[in-house]
Amino acid sequence: MSSRDSFSSVAVVGFMLFALFFGAGNLIFPVMLGQLSGENMILANAGFIVTGVGLPILGIFALAFSGKSDLQSLASRVHPLFALVFTVALYLSIGPLFAIPRTNTVSFEMGINPFLGNNDAFCRYFFIQSSFLL
Length: 134
Hints:
With 134 residues, the chain is an all-alpha fold. Helix content is 72%, strand content 0%.
């Protein structure tokens, strides 16, 4: 970033990096991973660090060192059709196919489900459907 970058652009990049390393499931998953790993805790932590920290850093370095300004121009180095398919698949998985339902599920499991009974299927169905509609 140059010295003339505005505070808002620095804040946007900062929030983007925070969201990249701390997703919706990273609040619950490390605790569950520690509970379920048992004697293999070191191996489980190593796998979580590689996939939760290492891969995002590799993505940042790949885009920074490529000199390209966006994902489609980076992927078009392989093939233009690959760039289109990959970009569409990535944006769909980031939004409506994976991240939005997962965020809704984590919010539901932590904030609403503890107050419901085990047999409240309508409420679960409502929140699953609302994750796709909103």
